[in-house]
Amino acid sequence: MKNGLYSLHVDMLDGHPDRGSGVIVLRNGEMRGGNGSVGITGSYTVSGNRWKGELITKPHASGGGTIFEDRESGIGVSGTFDGEGFAEATGTALLGKTSLTFKVTLRRLSEA
Fold this sequence. Notes:
Elements: E1 4-12, E2 19-27, E3 30-34, E4 38-47, E5 50-59, H1 67-70, E6 73-81, E7 86-95, E8 98-110
Antiparallel strand pairs: 1-2, 1-8, 2-3, 3-4, 4-5, 5-6, 6-7, 7-8
């Protein structure tokens, strides 16, 4: 996975209606990003063309409306990348006693 600024698109699985997007910077095993309502911090590792990461989302605007914008969550993801700036992963978000699964797509926008 190349260091850089990536667009981030999240689609919930299991019939949950929420979805989201934002930007994230991946640099030397660290992730930082967010959107107008949520900040993201975390770390990731790479092995071959696979990657996995752990991150925390923290709301910074009130009344966001989506599940991630209502409270802090812990998230684990794992997936693949193509070396050209495209990555996919599935993940699980822990929101209190609730866990939700989702798919995330990353597209590299520029170097960082």
